[in-house]
Task: structure prediction
Amino acid sequence: MLAHVQSFGLTGLEGYPVEVQVDVSGGLPQFETVGLPDAAVKESRERVRSALRNSGLNFPTQRVTVNLSPAHIKKEGPIYDLPIAVGLMAVSNDVHPRAVGDILFLGELSLDGRLSPVHGVLPMLIAARQQGIRRAVLPPGNAGEAVFVDGLQVYTPENLAQLAAWLNGKIQMEPLPVADWEAIRSRQIGALWDMSMVRGQHNAKRALELCAAGGHNLLMIGPPGSGKTMLARCLPSILPDLSFEEALEVTKIHSVAGVLPTGQGFITTRPYRAPHHTASAAALTGGGIQARPGEVSLSHNGVLFLDELAEFHRDALEAMRQPLEDGFVQVTRMQASLTYPARFMLVASMNPCPCGYFGSVDTPCRCSHTAIAKYQGRVSGPLLDRIDLQIEVTGVPVSQLEGTSQEETSAEVKARVNAARNIQLARYAHLGIYCNAQLDSNGVTEFCRPDHEGRVMLNRACYQMNLSPRAYHRILKMSRTIADLAGETEILPGHIAEAIQYRSLDRKYW
Result:
């Protein structure tokens, strides 16, 4: 007897249909899985056997062959436990085969028959809906992702016994209601760090505001204890609200990587990733046997903070040059070649020298010129060229730390950031981008045109500072953000002048 059950697989961030064919024939008891299964799929026979028997259902004592079609694509993970079990239920007459024909099944099984959550459910459900599937059965642990897929009825039985009873019409189950994005986003928890906690550092705060408003990259250089890390930790509190489309992109990546927060099926705030400086190039850009997303993709539509930038491995930093420019990363391994989105804001901090006090007026530097040059040389010129804002963060006097003046709160800054980002969303609605930093060269030509005085000023600065064409375009995009924050429709000379000053620091240290 033969049963056909619908399931799905995953290649990168894209789902593809998998038909689970279960055949039972005469002969000695044997269980064979074909269709390029990995070790986790092959082990499903033991989980399925125990789950069916412990749920009071039959397991065939004959020759069982399971084919996962298409057979030329490698199948990975425990997501096929549930469709294999449903196929066996159909051939054993525990459920009618017609009851499972138009339903998508995904899930891992515990030995007692409970349905356990799996990774990558959201992109598979989106692909299934696009291909005309209207009903799906998932583990309850994946309900948080499924409630945002409109047009798909999703059922979440607790165990196989409950699923069999529902398929046989003995009990009723209601599909999950479609969630309200705005209602869920309004319940998000505020950031732990607030801009009002930082005393002074007005220039650095202004730089953070510009980064948040336009999605630009930032490098902070300064002595130890000047507040670079604290400033970076305050950045999430002023990031613009995440749109539903952006949240969908972020959640798909985190779902595939298996790093969705416990009890949270959908990402409602912009990612903030801060890997340790010992992270490898594969950890940053993605890799492993299965070519999983790296930190640059996990921080998509959010922030990647690299503290102590010069302490990172040189090859790890250089590997980020391509995703910083293109907004995606190609992860190629022996078993897979996948493309992941990687539009992130790079925020980095570093000391100017090994001891940290080069250029300080308060503490003398103990490093030799050779040591300083070697330390600063760990950050290459091409990488610096991709960083829009480069600022110096100096220490705050103790008298200012003890002051009682009220600093501007994150809520006040975020209101301006949201206003500027809304202007950009409306301006680029037809382009499919979200902020000024994502403009390509054609977009810069169309939307970032200064007046004659501004062009003269910018051309003179590029000549005197020996700036590259890439830096020229990034200054124009930064000027566009400054104008948006000021509520100006045109880029004025003052906006150009402010943007240029953020590119002068690399001439001091490099």
User: Anything to note?
Assistant: The radius of gyration is 27 Å.
